[in-house]
Amino acid sequence: xxxxxxxxxxxxxxxQSLKKDLKIDDFICTLLLQREVDSLKKAQNFFxxxxxxxxDPFLMKDMKKVVEKIQNLKEHxxxxxxxxxxxxxxxxxxxxxxxxxMGYDLLYYIPDRYEEGYGVSExxxxxxxxxxxxxxITVDCGIKAIHQVDLSNSKNIEVVICDHHxxxxxxxxxxGILNPKQENCHYPFKELCGCGIAYKLITAHNxxxxxxIDTSIFLDFVALATISDMMPLIDENRxxxxxxxxxxxxxxxIGLRNFLKSINGKIDESKISFNIGPRINAAGRMKTGKIIxxxxxxxxxxxxxxxxxxxxxxxxNRRRIEKSVVDEALRQIDNQRYTNIVYGEGWNQGVxxxxxxxxxxxxxxxxxxxxxxxxxxxxxxxxxxxxYDVYKSLSDCQDNxxxxxxxxxxxxxxLKKSNFDIxxxxxxxIVKDSVGNKMFTRSFHYDLLIDFSKLTIxxxxxxxxxxxxxxxxxxxxxxxxxxxxxxxxKYLGKDQQIVKSIIKDKYETKLSFICFxxxxxxxxxxxxxxxxxxxxxxxxxxxxxxxxxxxxxxxKK
Length: 557
Description:
By secondary structure, this protein is of the alpha/beta class. It has helices at 12-22, 26-34, 40-47, 63-72, 86-101, 122-130, 146-154, 194-208, 219-228, 235-250, 257-261, 269-286, 290-297, 301-330, 352-362, 390-396, 420-434, 457-464, 519-522; strands spanning 4-6, 77-82, 105-109, 135-139, 158-162, 176-178, 340-344, 367-372, 377-383, 403-406, 410-416, 444-446, 448-449, 478-485, 490-492, 498-504, 510-515, 529-540, 543-555. The chain has three domains: 4-48 and 444-555, CATH 2.40.50.460; 57-313, inorganic pyrophosphatase (n-terminal core), CATH 3.90.1640; 332-434, Diaminopimelate Epimerase, Chain A, domain 1 (Roll). The chain has a five-stranded parallel beta sheet, with helices on both faces. The chain has a five-stranded mixed beta sheet with strand order 7-8-9-11-10, sandwiched between helices. A five-stranded mixed beta barrel has the order 14-16-17-19-18. Helix 1 crosses helix 2.
């Protein structure tokens, strides 16, 4: 099984030293060492992230002059302009709430995905001009808005950019740019999302003005954005998400309460990824992200309930449309190619990114999903596979593109419809050449090979304290070999695709398991098999039991 890869195991003396300090099982010490937690002090900070360890926001290039500018415009009108996804809408809502509380005259603007597209539009600048705005603060966008910032400047409207996307060779002529990835920015942590940068702005402003506001109350916004934008949960991100989740669970905002009602138990990173985040994104995908900002800043429970119901309807519609587009796109996949590049004339632009991710689940290749927007222009979303930089490949295709931007693993683009075939062949060729004519294969990394006896309730509780899990701190994956099913299978779920039963290892230790995707492999299985799995504690009638969630299995011949 070449595609099952065990993480590197560390030196025994380091392991034993950590075990002595922490007084916990050696396999948990191994998990910590794999996450670069190699001392008692680091372990303390890992399990109890200290908000006081956040970096000084004034280390970020332009921060001081931006804060001073905002303070000098206290009597002027400021417009916050954000993207229509979770990161952009939460950033907008947070800045609006904070600066409104500070007595500022504010507007906010979320571009229409279909009429304006991503980022700073001319329409947004016209809106700012009509409303006598003196300063535009962009969040989660703007780093490539060269022309638009020049236009704004020509109308005597200054611009501050808060963005985490990679800058191009030229940056906009803005008054200030807050982006750790820009040249000559010495801010020590480069992986903040847009909302994380916006949070740095309010903490800097709060410090500069010597305000008594506790800015940590805004970390729920940062948690939502960081998780939804799939930023690595390390360093500052881990600290902010940890405390942000505490805010969500202890004192949820009025605008979020309806979403939380449908969720059983404590809100964690997975529930944001698979439940709350998609709901928030649905508004920008299907109609307008403005409704999300309206919802997140709303203080009236009745209005909030009405808005959240509207969002729920949009999400249900999104799911229906998404399934239809996925079904059509799957029929276009060519297994002989190194990329998936599909096009549908009437596909909804708002679901293209999700569809691209679904195609990768089915056909593990860099994927581009395109539809016609207007004036014979194609708009699309790009998603990549592990360790492949799709943004760089798009850069190599830029001569045939009208616009592109994004990250290593996710990007967006526009091109002329007449250039579709040229781009399709060029992108395919670039990807093929860069991987040396070898087809992409999905690998499954696991932390440790263990026996079930290690999985005590006490140990699982320690593992759970390693959360929040995500990029940079993935939920531990274990491997156990030579397992057997020990009880009759039970089928759960709407289509009975979920399988539940009892499993035992070669030492006859038995555990409950649940499996979401491997029903056909498990039915009638009598022979030994190896598994990759996560662990969980299942609580029923006040009783805690260990449960494993099977992710992959290998059946012995």
